[in-house]
Write a structure and sequence with these properties.
The complex is a heterodimer. Chain A is of the alpha/beta class. Chain A contains 10 helices and 9 strands. In chain A, 43% of the residues lie in helices and 14% in strands. In chain A, strand 8, helix 8 and strand 9 form a beta-alpha-beta unit. Classes of the chains: A alpha/beta, B alpha/beta.
């Protein structure tokens, strides 16, 4: 494990300098997901120590939110999701991203969560929208807004914008603050359609321009489904998305190359005042080897 | 053997060559079934084997299918009269509540490549629609896809509906969270982890 590295926006000491205003990527650590064998086993065995180690590792590696997902346990999801939140927060002082489409599981987790969590996610699919909107309406909860509707998977930027417009306006009308919204324009594999990568990153650009103050987020690894050397593709795609304005990502923060790439990409995208984070990362040994 | 040229052209993902060589074989008087089975379908079988072995990837499967379909389009009108090219009929769809379609599309494509008639119901399909469509098309197999654990129960609902309707149609299931154990649990006739596996499974079930 490399040196602990905390990424902060740079606040200049001298009042003459311009304020930073730099947005830094929000990292949601994805590892505590029951679809991963080791996590599933730990949950079934109620092995708190194992879960807490993964939570600690992710927090130390720079995760801002710890995603928790118990979706594989059909019928037991609320109980296990609640346990995950309690277990994680007993060990790390970070908010969770509560990853479930099931409102009863979300509510069970919210009841025990300390601080302000992120809800992963709401979409325009009627059942999901109708059940989750009342939970987030008028609260300070962060919400990932996934650009999916009952009409199926969006294919183009315009498809995504149509969904995003309805979804974002719905959230705003329900008194969710724009700064608490993380739009996920849905990453789809380029193996199936060569333009899916650019449709996604162009959607990031348009959404960011359309709603000042809004955030974006996504789970990137779908981009490389069906192709070999996935890690390589995922890393490069992240830098392309950052150039277009992506500022939130659901990733494995223990992937040190990915984390280093993010810092370099943010510096190159003009988000790093005086390249302070880049230099800090360099001194922490993140670009070695 | 000139059908070998057609086979090779499919494996080379060369749609123009597949079309040209298929036409050439027809003009030379080669039996249509032979062109279809040895030239086109056999090539897609090989593509499936290579994919399962990790030698070919999704985009290559798509290109091969496109090339093969170029040849199939030339043969189809000639097969229409009396002779059926079809190995069977499959109704496929992603179950109710689930919108994921990539895997389902790959299976549908490989089934067509294997010579089956495929009725693709798309996504978010409820059990009534599966049953109705299967009955209307005298389907041999209903293939169900799910990518969300929360929609897997819809698979059970559909399998039950088929049994309650007293139909002899077989049911097969697949999708990332789906397992052989789950298939057995809900009484489905089979499970496959990938598209070529689904083709093999369905061939066995209709044999």
């Amino acid at each position: 494990m490399g040196a602990a590295f905390s990424r902060e926006p740079f606040e200049p000491q001298t009042p003459n300098l311009e304020p930073s205003g730099a947005r830094i990527m929000i990292i949601i650590g994805e590892l505590i997901n029951a679809s991963r064998k080791a996590i599933k086993a730990a949950i079934e065995a109620q092995d708190a120590a194992a879960i807490q180690q993964v939570a600690k590792d992710q927090a130390e590696a720079g995760a801002d939110y710890i995603d928790v997902n118990a979706g594989v346990f059909v019928g037991k999801e609320p109980e296990y999701l609640k346990w995950l939140v309690e277990t994680v927060q007993a060990a790390v002082d970070k908010p969770c991203a509560i990853d479930s489409p099931d409102p009863s599981a979300v509510e069970a987790a919210l009841a025990v969560h300390r601080g302000t969590p992120m809800i992963n996610s709401i979409s325009l699919e009627k059942e999901r929208y109708d059940k989750l909107m009342p939970i987030v309406a008028g609260t300070d909860l962060k919400v990932i807004a996934l650009c999916m509707s009952d009409a199926g998977m969006p294919r183009t930027v315009d498809d995504r914008m149509k969904i995003a417009e309805k979804l974002v306006n719905g959230l705003l009308k329900n008194n969710v603050k724009v700064a608490n919204i993380f739009v996920d324009p849905l990453v789809q594999p380029i193996s199936v359609e060569k333009t899916f990568g650019v449709e996604f990153i162009n959607a990031i650009e348009r959404i960011t321009a359309a709603y000042p103050g809004i955030h974006t987020a996504c789970g990137l690894s779908n981009i490389s489904y069906g192709l070999p050397a996935r890690k390589f593709l995922n890393q490069i795609f992240m830098t392309m998305a950052i150039a277009k304005g992506l500022d939130g990502a659901i990733i494995n923060p223990l992937d040190t190359r990915m984390m280093a790439n993010i810092i370099a990409a943010e510096a190159l995208a003009g988000k790093d005042n005086f390249c302070m984070n880049y230099l800090k990362a360099f001194r922490a040994g993140m670009f070695a080897g | 053997m000139a059908t070998q040229d057609i086979f090779n052209a499919v494996l080379a993902f060369d749609e123009a060559a597949v079309k040209a060589k298929t036409q050439a074989e027809l003009d030379a008087g080669t039996d249509i079934q032979s062109i279809l089975n040895d030239g086109l379908i056999a090539a897609m079988d090989e593509v499936g084997e290579k994919f399962s072995a990790g030698e070919l990837f999704v985009p290559e499967m798509l290109m091969a299918a496109q090339a093969m379909k170029g040849g199939l389009a030339i043969l189809k009108p000639l097969l229409a009269s009396g002779q059926s090219s079809s190995k069977g009929t499959v109704v496929i769809g992603t179950v109710k509540g689930d919108l994921h379609d990539i895997g389902k599309n790959l299976v549908a494509m490989m089934m067509e490549g294997a010579g089956f008639d495929v009725v693709d119901l798309g996504v978010d399909v409820d059990s009534e629609q599966f049953v109705k469509t299967a009955a209307e098309n005298k389907a041999d197999v209903i293939a169900l896809s799910a990518l969300l654990t929360t929609t897997m129960p819809s698979m059970e609902t559909t399998v039950k509906a088929v049994k309650e309707a007293g139909m002899s149609v077989k049911t097969v299931i697949g999708g990332a969270p789906v397992t052989q154990a789950f298939a057995e649990q809900i009484g489905a006739d089979g499970y496959s982890a990938d598209a070529p596996g689904a083709v093999k499974l369905i061939k066995q079930l209709v044999a």
